[in-house]
Amino acid sequence: MVFKVRSFGLALAVLLATAASAQQKIAFGDLNQDTSLPVEVQADQLAVNNADGSAVFTGNVVVTQGEMKLAADEVKVSYGANQTAIETLVASGGVTVTNLGDAVEAQEALYTIDSGVIVLTGEVLLTQGPSAMSGSKLTINLKDGTGVMEGRVTTTFVPGGN
Predict the structure, then answer these.
(1) Each residue of 59-94: pLDDT tens digit?
(2) CATH number, domain containing residue 51
(3) Strand locations in 5-130, DSSP E?
(4) What is the pTM of this model?
(5) Which string of b and e fits 79-99 if b means at least 16 CB within 10 Å?
(6) N- to C-terminal Cα separation, the chain
(7) What are phi and psi of 105, to 5 degrees?
(8) How many domains does the structure of the chain reveal?
(9) Mean pLDDT of the chain
(10) CA contacts within 13 A on the Cβ side of 26
(11) Is residue 162 one of the residues assigned to a domain?
């Protein structure tokens, strides 16, 4: 089953409906997410650990990169060897990633900045308008616009509504 998604690729226009098996491949169209854009983080609190090169943002955390926004209760940021560039973001607690009205919700998310890969796990729900897809894990590659939904995938769509 193939799906198309607007811009960032966190939503889809479902072409076929199915209660899928263990893995669902997703193709994302018109993906223009520039993973080299600055990453801005806003939160109620910040704790920095210079020893391991990490920072933990807590309370109403919002991470923005271009049009993409990630919201969560907590986001741990790991920096590279030179301590100037972000390598990964690990979000937990009510994770929501949005782009222009499209959304995906999960319990946790790992975003590896250089590779442009976001892995969302735990009761994943991907929506675009009235269409939805759920599973236990969604891996999105922002650079090539592909994604894979895994784990008892369920798809709901409204014909002609996408």
Answers:
(1) 999 998 888 889 999 999 988 777 777 889 999 999
(2) 2.60.450.10
(3) 13-14, 23-27, 40-42, 45-49, 54-65, 68-79, 86-99, 102-112, 117-128
(4) 0.76
(5) beeeeeebbbbbbbeebbbbb
(6) 16
(7) -120, 145
(8) 1
(9) 76
(10) 32
(11) no
